Amino acid sequence: MDQKVADLPRGPLDAYRNKASFNWKEMLHFIDGEEMLQFKQHVFKTLENDPLFARQPGEDISVEKKRELNFLRVKQLFRYNFLTKEDIMANPWKAVFLDDCLGMYDWAMVAKHGLNKGVR
């Protein structure tokens, strides 16, 4: 299990993390479960490897450019088709986890994607 979940980056909170009375990776596994952890990693790896989703720290882009990128990214999400109707029927929590994963990236994209999926 430790190989599947990456360690947190080193930082000022390390002293407190070392004092914890529990293993956070075990807690994550207990809360999310193996299937959901694999699903989240699949979503994150896919977005990380797609240049359309690349971001530069401190980038300042115009509203029009943001709208255009949002449109292109949502279009790409439909191509990826992370969840089929069968997946959602088998495990409705996957839709929630997908929204959470995408929301960590951009909530406007989640809203646009959800509206498009919901009215189909």
From TrEMBL:
Origin: domain of life: Eukaryota
Protein known as: Uncharacterized protein
Organism name: Xenotaenia resolanae
Organism lineage: Eukaryota, Metazoa, Chordata, Craniata, Vertebrata
